[in-house]
Specification:
Largest sheet of chain C: none
Number of helices of chain B: 13
CATH architecture of the largest domain in chain B: Orthogonal Bundle
Radius of gyration of chain C: 23 Å
Distance between the termini of chain C: 20 Å
Largest sheet of chain B: none
Oligomer: heterotrimer
Chains: A alpha/beta (543), B mainly alpha (314), C mainly alpha (290)
Number of strands of chain C: 0
Distance between the termini of chain B: 8 Å
Chain lengths: 543, 314, 290
């Protein structure tokens, strides 16, 4: 066994009086991938920042972090500058903001090379070009003079990786490197990281909230909760045996399938609630001259489908495939360029705001971000009651209060919560309240745009249960917009796959996901991290 | 990039035209007949009518507007009612005072403010930062004409280092002319420098919170290099915006400072012309200043595109 | 996380007050502003001396026990004049801010709600107003329509309109794509109702902060206009006018210039500190950055 690249012993960290990390132990060897797993607030990112010594000013550390035998917590800032970017590289979560918008990608990759190696500009750019080639951005197609805004999210993350790995560091820290990307891009970036680790014999700390991703990538795994290590060991052993109760809870939550009575037999099957006929939405493109514009972008390009009442349907696809634009048109928040949308017998795409009221009453929405869903200046009760604005005659005060209480209780919260403000609730609670708002008018359809992708796995499982129950109890039809196939599998009858503005495949969820007929669907399925599959593969590898 | 510039130019032209209409319209509704004002209350009606005809005041409004605009475009700003000389000559002789004054003040303000702002941002939260920020708070609150009066008292009256007011003209020698301008320039520059330093600091602090600063730190660059190579250029846009606004302010804001120092500048010309109802001069001065503001803003827009590649495509 | 976030509305308000009490800028600014306003109010019922009486025998006295800030060249008590003058400064600046908010905010929120051609026209119009150097234009307006406090208010107020329109539009534009606004739209609420219920309460912070800034700029502008003789007219005392009169006496009675200047500085400083403090206390985004 090789010497450890990184050894963390008894690392504790506090900011002010708040302890953030408590006695963390962790070891990484060359060529090894260590998965650092935990839910939000578990201290994974702080651990990474401690290694880089890029902590907030108020943070106080204790314990020991040794990099190749050298004590990092005692190193001078000058020594840290020598280590960072040369021996230790770091990749961040948000590729859209991790690059300086006013510098070319070539300059940004070359900068660290010049600084650490003292090369001249041309030599450094030459090496930057080689590195960008290694991460899949060959100079022939991606000239070094490109600016970050000219690249997609996945391409930008490749640039960030090129910066981190340009000098072949001994240790790479990747903090949620794929969380902001869709599953297909995620798989590509993970493949790239795996390749780099193997070629350069790096140690990699992969920080993630997604057990599936870590199971797939990591040789060993450390599970954090509230700043403490819960369990650590070989990935295969830890995840197969699930000895620690928290590990078991995490694993169960990430493969959770709700108990759902209507799963096989959707109620009241025949009535077509929502119908789209050849719907298209084009956006004007950038100007190419003073008065000229390029070809318009066809975000949605001739989509036809229907959703029957009481059915739960998933619309899946990579980011940028047009699914969110489509959702906005269904909700009559945007109008199609061409085609018609009918809901409950009304042609909503042709109605004005007043005539839309009956349709809006029957059709509500749940958004992805539980933090943006509520007006921070209004009490929750106010926001939850907002759709009651659509009732034909205004409700009396007691009636209104009763409706709010009923909706809030329906999602498992207390009626007294209505008098609180949004910031008093956690993300999961807010998502419940957002669902309460969506069902307060007893609608027939709820459109949910990535409703669980911003939530921790344990919360996510609870919200999926809630959706299942609402379908069983209220006969609500759902349209889930998601790039996450596990959501589709857990909670929908039918699935539609969207790509480049078109629906390329649809059918019963089980049929489509088990026997995909289209290349794009196959790619989506292959890319989706799957905990069970990963554990099986690991166990086979270990034996 | 070219189409970006072209579209900006179209906007500049439209803004200028609209502004000229506003100026023309406002001065049209001013009470008082210019011809009557020029000839005095004892003039006969015939004499006034004759002068009105000579000045073109009997023409329809629209025609007069186009005649005025057309004249301005060909460099003919008309003749001053009170000075009886071409307005263009008046403006030219005042501009050689106001323009150097504004440029001196701008240079002074920038030279002080940017280093101070960077210094303060780099030492955020320290006693030095707090002290500098308190000083800039005070600087913003000081009315520049009051500061000017104090400067005159200290440097001209008490210490007798520079003249208390007036302008000897450039023909008296560059040294003497500059000596006459130095106090007004300082009076104009210091309050502006206080604003600019604060903007520089807060723009830098905003940028320093961005993710790409962390990326640059993770490359191993020391904090001061990150500040210089990554933060400064990204902080430039708000700083440029304020610089553009300040040039306009300095050129027009001289109106009061020129009064304190008895400088024969553009602001004072405009001020006197207003009180004497010399409308043709007022129109010309205002349109000239508006044009300067609009063109400076245009240059600032171009500078944005230089500073931020994302804007080049729009 | 969840535990520490549970708090009643009452405690939330107390939290805000606590935050404000701990903010040094806010406290200093609020103290000065309250003091200045109090002085202005007191001047309605009491001043140490009558500012309309000219007592030539007492002229140009240096500060003393009888006249804390000395007397001017007509023998008037400068402290009394500062007190009465503060009314004009505050009134002119405050009404000018009122004009800016009353016209600018509806225009800005409307532009953000409707976008398209209307937005473009309103923004171009504000560009045109911005193209006029504010001080020169204010001088022009007061000179043409007659010097005096009322025209000074209008001249300063006009230039506040596009300022508030821009701030309101910018804030509103950032809110319209937010999910809670989309939810309100999905609840069938029209743009006007959404603006009143969601947009305005959420941009109130920005407007209050901008209001204090424009207030202090208004004080400076009023002083400038009065200094060149176009603002508040004599015999009503005004800070700017006092500075003008002091200028010729500079060599023999510098206190005549220093006192009104300090009055202006203290008032403007107080308002700026209050604005800075309010921004820190009210804006959660900025709070997080510190």
């Amino acid at each position: 066994m090789t010497d450890p690249v990184l050894e963390i012993e008894n690392l504790s960290l506090s900011i002010g009086d708040h302890p953030i990390l408590k006695d963390i132990d962790l070891t990484v060897r060359a060529g090894e991938v260590l998965g650092l797993v935990g839910e939000s607030g578990s201290g994974k990112s702080m651990t990474a920042q401690s290694v880089m010594r890029l902590l907030p000013h108020a943070a106080r550390t204790a314990g020991s972090i040794r990099f190749a035998g050298e004590e990092i917590l005692a190193a001078s800032e000058g020594r840290m500058c020598e280590l960072r970017g040369d021996d230790i590289g770091m990749v961040f979560q948000e590729p859209m903001t991790a690059l300086n918008p006013v510098k070319t990608i070539g300059e940004q990759v070359a900068e660290g090379i010049r600084f650490h190696r003292g090369l001249d500009r041309a030599e450094a750019l030459d090496r930057a070009s080689q590195m960008l080639d290694r991460v899949g951005l060959p100079e022939s197609r991606f000239p070094l003079t490109r600016y970050p805004h000219e690249l997609s999210g996945g391409q930008r993350q490749r640039v960030v990786i090129a910066i981190a790995c340009a000098l072949r560091p001994k240790l790479l820290i990747a903090d949620e490197p794929t969380t902001a990307l869709d599953v297909v891009l995620q798989a590509q970036i993970l493949d790239l990281l795996r390749e780099l680790v193997a070629e350069d014999d790096m140690g990699l700390i992969l920080i993630s909230h997604d057990l599936g991703v870590v199971a797939d990538m990591a040789d060993r795994i450390t599970i954090l909760r509230h700043g403490e290590v819960q369990e650590a060991g070989e990935t295969a052993t830890v995840l197969r045996e699930q000895k620690h109760p928290y590990t078991r809870r995490l694993a169960e939550a990430s493969t959770h399938v709700p108990i759902w009575a209507n799963a096989q037999t959707p109620p009241d099957g025949e009535k077509r609630l929502l119908e789209l006929d050849d719907v298209a939405r084009h956006f004007p493109s950038h100007r190419t001259g003073l008065f000229r514009r390029g070809e318009p972008t066809r975000a949605v390009d001739g989509v036809s489908f229907s959703v029957r009442s009481g059915h739960s349907v998933a619309l899946v696809g990579q980011s940028g495939c047009g699914k969110s634009t489509l959702a906005r048109m269904i909700l009559a928040l945007d109008r199609p360029t061409a085609g018609t949308i009918s809901f409950d017998g009304m042609e909503t795409s042709a109605l004005d705001e007043h005539a839309l009221r009956p349709a809006r009453r029957q059709m509500q929405v749940v958004f992805q971000d539980p933090y943006g869903s509520f007006d921070p200046r209004q009490k929750i009760g106010h926001s939850v009651a907002e759709p009651l604005h659509l009732m034909d005659k205004p409700l009396t005060r007691p009636e209104r209060r009763e409706r709010i209480a009923a909706a809030v209780e329906e999602v498992g919260m207390q009626p007294s919560d209505a008098t609180k403000y949004p910031h008093e609730f956690s993300g999961g609670q807010r998502q419940r309240l957002a669902i309460a708002r969506a069902i307060i008018t007893r609608p027939k359809l709820v459109v949910a745009d990535e409703p669980v992708s911003a939530l921790d796995v344990s919360i996510r499982a609870q919200i999926l249960d809630l959706f299942a129950r609402l379908n069983d109890d209220l006969g609500l039809a759902f349209l889930f917009i998601t790039h996450d196939l596990t959501v589709a599998r857990a909670i929908t009858h039918d699935v539609m796959v969207m790509d480049h503005g078109k629906i390329i495949e649809s059918g019963r969820t089980g049929d489509v996901l088990d026997h995909p007929g289209h290349e794009v669907t196959r790619r989506l399925i292959a890319a989706a991290p799957d905990l069970q599959r990963a554990i099986q593969r690991r166990s086979a590898g270990v034996r | 990039m070219l189409s970006y510039a072209l579209r900006r130019i179209v906007i500049v032209v439209i803004t200028l035209l609209a502004a000229s209409v506003v100026v023309f319209a406002v001065l049209e509704i001013v009470p008082g007949d210019p011809a009557r004002l020029m000839l005095g209350i004892n003039a006969t009606d015939d004499a006034v009518a004759a002068l009105r005809q000579q000045m073109g005041l009997d023409q329809p409004l629209v025609l007069r507007y186009f005649a005025w605009i057309g004249g301005m475009l060909s460099g003919d700003f008309g003749r001053s009612y009170t000075y009886s000389v071409p307005v263009i000559d008046l403006i030219r002789e005042r501009l050689v005072v106001s323009l150097p004054l504004a440029l001196m003040a701008l240079a002074l303000s920038t030279a002080i403010a940017i280093p101070v702002g960077v210094f303060s941002a780099a030492r955020r939260g320290t006693a030095a930062d707090t002290g500098v920020m308190a000083a800039t708070q005070l600087g913003i609150a000081i009315p520049n004409f009051w500061f000017a009066i104090l400067l005159v008292y200290v440097f001209a009256i008490a210490l007798r280092l520079v003249p208390a007011g007036g302008f000897p003209g450039w023909e008296a020698g560059i040294g003497k002319a500059l000596a006459a301008l130095i106090l007004p320039a300082i009076a104009l520059a210091l309050p502006q420098a206080a604003i600019l330093a604060r903007v520089t600091r807060s723009a830098l602090l905003d940028v320093l919170g961005e993710d790409y600063i962390r990326t640059a730190r993770a490359k191993g660059l020391p904090a001061r290099l990150v500040l210089r190579r990554h933060a400064l250029r990204n902080a430039l846009i708000p700083v440029l915006t304020i610089l553009g606004l300040q040039f306009a302010f300095l050129l027009a804001g001289t109106i009061i400072i020129e009064n304190v120092f008895y400088l024969p500048g553009l602001g004072r010309l405009g001020f006197q012309a207003i009180t004497q109802r010399d409308l043709i001069v007022v129109e010309s001065v205002v349109v000239l200043l508006v044009a300067t503001v609009v063109i400076v803003n245009f240059l600032v827009d171009l500078a944005y595109a230089w500073a931020d590649p994302r804007l080049r495509r729009r | 996380m969840a535990g520490e976030l549970i708090a009643t509305e009452h405690e939330d308000w107390r939290h805000f007050v606590g935050k404000a009490l701990r903010n040094r800028s806010f406290m200093a600014g609020a103290l000065i502003t309250v003091l200045v306003v109090a002085v202005a109010l007191v001047s309605f019922v009491w001043t140490p001396y009558d500012v309309t009486k000219l007592i030539i025998a007492d002229r140009l006295q240096a500060p003393s026990g009888a006249h804390w800030f000395g007397t001017d060249h007509f023998g008037r008590d400068i402290l009394s004049m500062i007190m009465v003058g503060s009314r004009n400064s505050i009134a002119v600046a405050l009404i000018a801010v009122g004009i800016g908010i009353a016209i600018g905010v509806p225009l800005g929120t409307l532009a953000a709600a409707k976008r398209g051609a209307l937005d473009e026209i309103l923004m171009r119009a504000s560009d045109i107003v911005f193209a006029f150097p504010a001080l020169l234009s204010a001088v022009m307006i007061t000179a043409i329509f007659g010097p005096g406090a009322v025209n000074a208010v209008i001249a300063i107020g006009i230039f506040n309109i596009p300022v508030f329109a821009r701030v309101a539009r910018g804030g509103a534009l950032a809110l319209w794509p937010r999910e809670f606004v989309l939810a309100a739209r999905a609840s069938g609420k029209r743009a006007g109702l959404i603006t009143v219920q969601h947009i305005l309460p959420n941009i109130a912070n920005l407007l209050v902060v901008q209001g204090t800034i424009q207030f202090s700029l208004g004080i400076l502008a009023e002083a400038g206009l009065s200094y060149v003789g176009l603002g508040t007219q004599p015999p009503a005392p005004s800070w700017g006018r006092m500075l003008f009169e002091a200028q010729t006496m500079m060599a023999i009675a510098p206190h005549m210039a220093i006192v009104p200047g300090v009055a202006i500085i203290v008032t403007v400083l107080g308002l700026n500190l209050l604005g800075d403090g309010l921004r820190d206390v009210l804006d959660p985004r900025l709070r997080r950055q510190r």
